[in-house]
Structures are given as C-alpha cells and as structure tokens.
Amino acid sequence: MDPGARPEVSRGWITRYGLLYLGQNLAWAAPAQLLLARQILVWHPGDKEARLALLMAIGGVASLVGHPLAGWLSDATGGRRGRRAPWILVGAAVSAGCLAAMAAAPGFWALTAAWTVFQLFIAAAINSAQAVAPDGVPRHQYGTVSGVLGLTYTLGLVAGTAVAALLGTGPAYLVAATLLLAATAQFLLGFRDPTAGVAPAAAPREAPDPDPDPAPGRADRPAAGYRDFGWVFVARFLVTTGNYVALFYLFYFLRDRIGLADPDGGVLVLTGIYAACVVATAVAAGVVSDRSGRRRGYVAASSAGVAVACAVMAAAGDFPVVLAAAVLLGLSWGVFMAVDQALINEVLPSAARRGRDVGVMNLAVAGPNTLAPLLAAAALGAFGGYPGLYLFAGAVTALGAAAVTRVRGVP
C-alpha cells in the first residue's frame, strides 16, 4: 500500500513499538556502558584500557557487518510471518542467550566471542524493527513514530546504565536479557507484519513486489531516489560524528579545561540534563513535523543547533556555560533523532529493499561510533587542545546541516 494511503497506527501500537526499541537498546547499553569494563577490570587490571578497546573494536566491526547483512536477509525472507518479525524474534533470542553467556564468561576471549555474536544478532533485531515503520506506518505519522524511537533510545541508554550500575555483573546481564525478551514478546504477540505474504526481494523477477515504491516516480528513476538517500546518509554520518567527537573526552574536558573538582559528578549531571532535553523534544518534534509535512528544515536546524552547542563548549571557561551547552545540545539532538529517522523513511528508494537500505543507513551511526575516538584524539592534538576539538566537532556538524539542504524529494 502507498505510504500516503495507509491507515493510521494506534497509540497502543506506537507504545508497544517504542517498548520494543527500548528493550533492544537497553540490552546493548548495559554491557557497553559498564558491564564489559567491570569484567575486564577484574581479569586484566594492568591493561584494562587496551583490552576494552580491543573488545569494542571487534564488536564494532561485527556491528558494521551486521546491519547491512541483517537488512539484506530480512528483505530476502518470505512467508506468512513476513520479512521483519522472524528476524526481530531470532535476533532477540540469540542476543539474550549471548547476554547469559557473557554473564558466565570465564575469561576475556570467551567474553569477546559472546559480545561479537551479540553485536551481529542485536543488529538483526534492531535493523528489522526499524524497517517496520517504513513498511507499515502512514507517511503522516513517520515523525511521531520516529520521535517515540528517539525517546525510547535515550531511555534505553539510561535504563541500561542504571541496571548495570545497581546490580551485580551476573544479575545485570540476566535482567537485561529478560527485559529484551519481554519487550520483544509484548510487541510480536499483537503484531501483524505488513510484509506477510509478500514475495522476498531476492526473487523479484519471479514475483513482482506488490508494494509500490515509497516515493512515486522513483521506481523508474533509481539514481534520483538514491541521490536523496545518499545526501541523508552523508548528513547523518557527519552530524553523528560531530556529536560523538564532542562527547568523547567530556570527563577529561571537565577535569583539565574547566577545572571541576568532581568531574565524575559533572558528567552525571550533564548526562541527566542532556537526556532530559532529548526526552522533552523528541516526540514533540516528530508530531510537529508530521503536522507541517516538512522534514528537511527540522533536520538542518537541529544539526545547526548541535554545531552551535559545540561552539559554546569551545568557548566555555566555567561549568555554568557547559550546562547551557548541554541544554542546547540535548534539545537539538532530540529534534534531530526524531525527524532524521522520519526523513530516512521518506527517502528509502525501494519498497522491496527497505531492510537493506535501513541497514546501510545505520552505518552512518555505527561508523562514527568506531571513528570518533580516533578523530577526537587527532583533533585534540592538531587543533590546540579542547577549544580546537570542539570547533572541529562543530564544523563537521555544520557540514552535515549543509548536506541536508541538498535533499530535493522531501520538503
């Protein structure tokens, strides 16, 4: 069905969809934020930094492979259960098993192996879940649904960190696995995959895709469709890179540049403010974007807001100024997360290969996550310390804001 003519999804459906995404993001946040570092500290206190960096690098490569691979596999899946539901279920089940294995891991290499498999299958679950919206949500609700995903992503990050901080290592892994399975079950039990019965994308010649292209007219102009997709990818990659670079050395920035006596507490305060601002703007921005029918301007303006927040950080000499930057950064990032995903849904060029294209677009997040430490270290040395680092992050983000304006098919 044409995305412009689909029936609306209910608030209950949107809530269950958001809870699914919350559980998926909680599952990776708990290990990534604290549990892995805690285990490695026990086993290898002398070279914990190098060991953790190695584990995260291996897992990062698995994630880079997992997202496009998962998208391709879900597109090629057919049958009465649809393209996405089987991979959401399989991804969650294997990921939960990996979390249990990580809780019982006897040493570093067993932990690394379980984390690598986890990254592959949580990518399958998340990627398939993200493709559900462009498969079945009407275009005029893209922003609302994407705003809920932005909200639950942030809540999942905070909740995963809280689970890891409040529980012992083994119980925290098991709680994360249980919550992932519960979040998946509550969504899939009432979910009818709109791709059920649709021929898999692997065999388009034998069975033409009955779902028309999401943007009318792009089916016979694939280059034009992928041109907009490409610019959105570039914009997302640059803005995400700028944001990650800006946050990477926050603890050291507060300690060495601002001279804060308690940099740990400062990071906690800033994280709380940042998360609260993201929550405050994510859903509201999505709803406003739906009502206006516009996406591009919101993404460009929020990207510019992130760039300005980086410039404020570059000029900051005391903690109140950093607090102001955190507010601006959180408000801007909340809008960006909400409307950027809606814009992605708008520019997916092929109805038959939405999973693959969503997987490729996710590389614009996984790539910066891998590159940010290297870029931050290089910028810190090359541009004269923290002011230069934050100006670099702001410049990268501003380029992302400019890239969004090159999109032509979406207002």
UniProtKB/TrEMBL annotation:
PROSITE patterns: MFS, SUGAR_TRANSPORT_2. Keywords: Membrane, Transmembrane, Transmembrane helix. The keyword rRNA-binding does not apply. It is found in: Cell membrane. Residues 199-219 are annotated as: Disordered. It is a multi-pass membrane protein. It comes from the Bacteria. InterPro entries: MFS, MFS_dom, MFS_trans_sf, Sugar_transporter_CS. SUPFAM superfamilies: MFS general substrate transporter (SSF103473). GO terms for cellular component: plasma membrane. GO terms for molecular function: transmembrane transporter activity. Residues 228-411 form the Major facilitator superfamily (MFS) profile domain. Coiled coil: none annotated. The chain crosses the membrane at residues 52-73, 85-109, 115-133, 145-167, 173-191, 231-254, 266-288, 297-315, 321-339, 360-383, 389-407. PANTHER family: MAJOR FACILITATOR SUPERFAMILY (MFS) PROFILE DOMAIN-CONTAINING PROTEIN (PTHR23528:SF1), PTHR23528. This is Major facilitator superfamily (MFS) profile domain-containing protein.
